[in-house]
Amino acid sequence: MLIDLTHVIRNGLPVFPGDDETVLAHTRQFDRDFYNNHQLSTNMHAGTHIDGPMHLLDVHRPISGIPLDTFVGEGCLLNVCGQETIDYKEEYEELIREGQIVILHTGHGKRFGQPGYFTDYPVLTDAFAGLLVKKRVKMVGLDTPSPDKEPYSVHKTLLGGQILIIENLANVDKLADAGAPFEIIALPLLIEADSSVARVIARIKDRA
Question: Per-residue DSSP letters for 85-145?
Fold first, then answer.
């Protein structure tokens, strides 16, 4: 079974305050031009996307230079619903394994497109980010717009530790309801940019 964890890219897709808006125009229409075409103008942090190291670090490593196997891996789901701050817990030492893609289910994703989504969201602590770095996970995925707020120390810890960040995931509640092992496939565009919009899916594995 596959679960799509991606928000649809559409005209007017909500963006983080201060970012350029998303414009999807139907530029050629069949009844007029005898074919259809669309043109997209979007910043790389709109909707479901992956933050690469260039986003908040003084490095020149576009997301197109990240090894492909970084974007596919065994998933680890942590239920952190109702927590305003996601902090280190000793139990995570056993739950999280090296090379996994950790998905945090905060429940905040249901507010996507509503007032407060981009301003009133749960955040990660530096201690939790440090655990992810120690565990050498590939990526961390969030149903929120960011793992932290200014001065973005968690961003810098994760990206500096070679952990990519998936933001604005959708349908994480469906993944939680599946209650089975899963694999994450999160593919960015092959683009020379700091980050990229992405299609993120979970492949639920059959129980033995």
Answer: EE---TTHHHH--TT-EEEEE-SGGGGTTSTTTTTS--EE-HHHHHHHHHHT-SEEEESSS
**How many Å from the N-terminal Cα to the C-terminal Cα in the chain?**
15
pLDDT in tens, 151-177: 999 999 999 999 999 999 999 999 999
Tell me, what DSSP letter sits at residue 70? G
Parse the chain into domains and list their residue ranges: 2-6+43-204
Which position has the token pair 């963006």?
15
Q: What is the third-level CATH fold of 2-6+43-204? A: Glucose Oxidase; domain 1 (3.50.30)
- Distances, alpha carbon 132 to alpha carbons 17, 39, 69, 82, in Å: 28, 38, 18, 21
**Collapsed DSSP state (helix, strand, coil) of residue 170:** coil
Rounded to whole angstroms, the Cα distance separating 128 from 95 reads: 13
Backbone Cα Rg of the chain: 17
Q: Classify 39 as helix, strand or coil.
A: strand
Q: Is the pTM of this model over 0.85?
A: yes
